[in-house]
Design a protein that fits this description.
Length: 565
Amino acid sequence: MTALMQPVRTALLRVTDLRVRYRTGDGPVTALDGVSLTLHPGEVVALVGESGSGKSTLAQAVIGLLPASAEIDGGAVEFDGAQVDHTSERALRELRGARIGFVPQDPGLSLNPVRRIGGQVAEALLVHGRATRRDAAERAVELLGEAGLDRPAERAKQYPHQLSGGQRQRVLIATALACSPDLVIADEPTSALDATVARRVLDRLTERTAARGAAVLLITHDLATAAERADRLVVLRAGAVVEAGPAARLLTAPEHPYTRELLASSPGLAAAGPGRAERVRAEQPLLRITGLRKRFRLGGAALTAVDGVSLELDRGETLALVGESGSGKSTTARLALRLADPDAGTVEFSGQPLTALRGRKLRELRRRFQIVYQNPYGSLDPRQRVADIVAEPLRAYRTGDRAERTARVGELLEQVGLGSGFAGRRPAELSGGQRQRVAIARALALHPELLVLDEPVSALDASVQAQILTLLGDLQRRLGLAYLFISHDLAVVRRISDRVAVMRHGRIVETGRTAAVFAAPEHEYTRELLAAVPRPRKEPAPRPGSSPGAEHSHAGLPGPEKETP
């Protein structure tokens, strides 16, 4: 049968010219401005865009969970042929969970902390009358196993705080799929997870939805993940669709400048360059860590967080410390900066034994190294203005008078690309990228030689990540800074680091020049990390129940000349 003779597929979800606005004290703010998209049974469509683009607002509008301050100002949302954007709350409750499953971004906020896991999964079955109470409990255990949790019967008896982030995310997947929905909306389901854990979670979600023939609307700011998982991409910017179409086409021939910008900004999709030039190792490194060990007491047990770690870092060099959460990266950094004392081992900074210093000598040496934390929303005092935040180290070390500190703050803000006009603002008035620039400016205030960068871009959108990484590279060249760059994202590490050290269970399992480790990893765990970096599919994966060629048919789908989401 030719493509023209194939039957037109009925859309499961159809959003037409949807407009949503929020009421604020400063007047109405448009969140969605005429968004249209379709989603067919068994299809995966990724909605891609930066924070604030309207992605989550669209998801909330589809399932009728817009906040009270929001209103639909025009357009329509149809699910399986019925309009749902202005239907009753009772009708929406019958849809949610039963026919539309939802996997939210933050399992820490989405799971009830005082209820056992099994009961929370079983609740979806009970609410929609899919099982008796006894059967629901048994089925909840089965669902947890299907979602990839080990020892599901034991996990069902646990509370959320007893599970890791990846395990909690699997609980949300089990809950979303409990009633075998026709559509699953996954809103940034892995943004808080390490790459290897994220891959396992997405693999399980893809496997379970494909087995049931469910459609998936994947909402993400990560274009690399979208390209790997989706049949089609819909690119959203400032509440409007700027481009849409098959994932392979958008990746190879994007038409809109913003799509091209996202592609260029995505570390996972950027072409690997020749890497940074190999450096001659210094006789005396700026930082030398030898045989560090650190144990913590957890109840009646002991946890070895850092187990015999040895590293060296030269002036002007970037050493990336990579590994999953819990591998010991941040603890190693804290020991290196003497923010914690090791149980064994030594730290030398510029030839001085840092582990042996105390009091004034330690304080004076500390001005030569600074730290930039992961979360720019939590590392800045919301009550202070930017000028006071940046000047904090100057005041702490009594550097200069008021006029000199003011001048230094202006210089630092210019250095990180903000300008002195930001001095009077508070963190709430800044974007995530601007906040991280403020944190970097504060870290540079005392002219340090070493910056420890603890996941400095993991909380940022891809394009903002690219801006911060470019800034860090420029600062390193101009100021001769050394970076200890902590990350779980190997795509970012490939872009910024000279050398890489891979940590697992508190130990260094592999170290070497970044280009060499990426080209020929020696340790199995390094290979696992590299395999977890998202890679775009070259063609759509076959869907359950689809006939050969159906996914490539233009019937019922927009053609290349008249592209609609």
